[in-house]
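Give me structure tokens for this 503-residue protein.
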Amino acid sequence: MILLINPPLVKPSEPPPGLARLYGTLRAEGVECEAIDANIEGILYLLGKGSPACDSWTARAVRNRARNLEFIRSPQSRLNLDRYKRTVSDLNRLLGKSADSIGQARLTLSNYQDLALSPVRSADLLKAAEKYEANPFYEYFSKRISSAIELISPGVIGISLNFLSQALTAFSMIGFIRARYGRIRLVLGGSLVTSWVRGPGLKQPFEGLIDLVVSGPGEQVLLDLAGIDRIAKRRFSYVPFPANDYLSPGPIVSYSASCGCWWNRCSFCPEKAEGIRYEPVPPKEAVLEARELCSAHRPALIHFVDSAMSPALLSRLAENPPGAPWYGFARMTKRLADEDFCRALKAGGCVMLKLGVESGDQSVLDLEGKGMELGLASRILASLKKSGIGTYVYLLFGAPSESEAEARNTLDFTVRHAALIDFLNLAVFNMPVNSPDAKRLATSPHYEGDLSLYTGFRHPKGWDRAKVRHFLESEFKRRPAIAAVLSNDPPLFTSNHAPFFVG
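Here you go.
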């Protein structure tokens, strides 16, 4: 028996796709396994504990807790953005207050931080494992994991670690399991673990605590541990997850039709730096799998979690709709400038596309390997708007090729196209520690820790992070046209809920 666990804390908007793929594949191959989404369970546990009403805001949040949980899970929440924002704010207040008495923990609906421990220091992760009782989710996971172990007696427990915000709790869980149930074999995997293994920092610092650290997809590793000696065909299943418990205006299922990015040439991309290969599922097969998920789970929304949906997959979805509204990340290719094609996508269920514009300066796009012309980007934004498909546009500031002058070109581009953009994500450039730029520029520690995936660097044009942040806060965000777009963004849940508010 294998027990799979998704630890807190990530946005509790939908079940974890990585665990759904592991569970579905193992079950399809006849392996006995169970899965726990400790993220949604742990968050709901803390929300239900009650918080001291020490101020009027917290008192209101406590008083309206049941009503707010009902509202955020209702389709009605997408009809009233102002009330939605108040609801998220109140729930976030409750969750944060639940950790006030627990050390230096800081919880929000999208993040967990500890002011004393860093998730990018292996020594701190080991401390979290040793002092597991200090974790804000300890009261929940000590009971939940113990109950599951007593019920199903797993020989292997797999922990899926994909985000830094999960790391401290993941290791607290590992420390608890190791201390109480030393006979059980512990396996640690997930995309963050893969990045650690492929980076320069991880040199078996968890030996003796974790039995097996997995880089890349974990299905075959777990099948080997279960004694299944054959190559498995991956499957997704959301059967073990409480679909109606997640905090979203409707049930969401996630699906990935590929590993890696089909473009894989952007110089700033961590996947390129880590050498992750592009491995797609054939589009016909991918759409069939998505349709099967829709039939089995009847979601309100499908989230394609690919790094970039391929043109072939988009074409297939336009021709063969999956059976539910959907969204995902796509590169800005010529096909998306075709209004007829965009209307076909819309008719096929596409409600929103996430688009990496990155810069409004052509020289920056060229030097960073984006492979896109700004004129094409303009036509695509117009085509999508006319077709009724929402756009969630990503901009990146502070890349090595950018100066303040180029950043102002991005400001101008965004103002000119603001009427065509539904949502905006503004990011400050992080240099992957293994990127080619890191080898040619003077670098310094960005996050102090042996597991950091990024490095600080001396910007060749003097456009450092402090200047970038000042520009964004004092000028970029204050332009009325841009401020209006930024105000559309669902707080904390951002792109995970944005498709519900398109139109």
